[in-house]
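Subject: mismatched residue count in predicted assembly?

I count 391 residues in my input, but I want to confirm that the predicted structure covers every chain. Input:
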Amino acid sequence: MAALSNKENFLKGIIRENPVFVILLGLCPTLGVTSSAINGLGMGVATLFVLVMSNLVIALVKNLIPDKVRIPAFIVIIASFVTVVQLLMAAYTPALNEQLGIFIPLIVVNCIVLGRAEAFASRNTVFASILDGLGMGVGFTFALVLLGSIRELLGSLSIFGWKLAEADGMLVFVLAPGAFITLGFIIAIMTWMKRKKSVNP
Amino acid sequence: MEYIVIIISTIFINNIVLAKFLGICPFLGVSKNTSTAVGMGGAVIFVMTLSTIMTYLVQHYILIPLNIAYLQTVMYILVIAFLVQVVEIVLKKVSPDLYQALGVYLPLITTNCTILGVAILVIQNNYNLLESVIFAIGNSVGFTLAIAMFSSLREQLDTADLPEYMQGIPAALITASILSMAFMGFAGLV
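Triage response: the counts match. Full output below for your records.
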């Protein structure tokens, strides 16, 4: 890990170790809020903020926390930042807050955040941890926006709220089954492309 | 009657996994065979019912009187983490058999978003204590039902002849989609 350069620390989260498509963490908000691209973006940015801030603080205090209580300590730090996000969103973006609903407080138990705290921030420098949080957050946002756009496009024939055609889409893509099936196909396509690359490089 | 409606709607119509997307991580992670899936489901039923009672009491007797309801998220996650630890210690002493059956799943439950999710939903829906308990039982039974059905489907999938890139998670997700579509048929039941 230590050998990675700053650039790699940032970039690895976006494609190679993308939290959603490759490591398969944090699937609840991924599936739950992506009925439209804009919701995906909002959720992604909220998670990005929590990831960066909690990575930053945990990297700062990692030597002060006794090893035995580190997980509860991490959770409290994460929960504090989630509360900050919750209050900020309720104040400045009430409509989005309403849409995302219960998934905002649930960032606390998003495995990505705790996972990066435990796997990266607790054993790396502050600067590297911030970059790692940024990269993972951008990767997560990218995944959510991609999934949200596909579902919105197929489900209501619009993108970021812009109506493309005056017709009904396939409603099922906005509903629950569409979330599972879209993610399933995205992961299958990514695996297929990776296979192809490794067979004839 | 009202209680029956809560039970039916949480198990079938608004199934916590297939319609509300909570608890996807254990749903995909611990569903490779039926016996572990049922074990996980049992642990969730147990902890969710207890934690919902605890968080309800914390909300109404600590957070609201002290006017610090904005600490909800921090407080709840601490209560849940604490409760899981206590349940683990108590079970080990009181009922080693049950501990044997549920033991390995207990630590995983702290980060299971169904537990925190239900605790928050109960407050959002303004349920009283009895309704909250019923809501928690319904949701956890719904979780167990979904994960048990899904795991038996996945056991079949293992032997299916699929293209290489569809094996594992992609096939599982598409199966989950079809299962969720089947559950949509329950809409309008109550």
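The radius of gyration of chain A is 18 Å. Marking this ticket as 'not a bug'.
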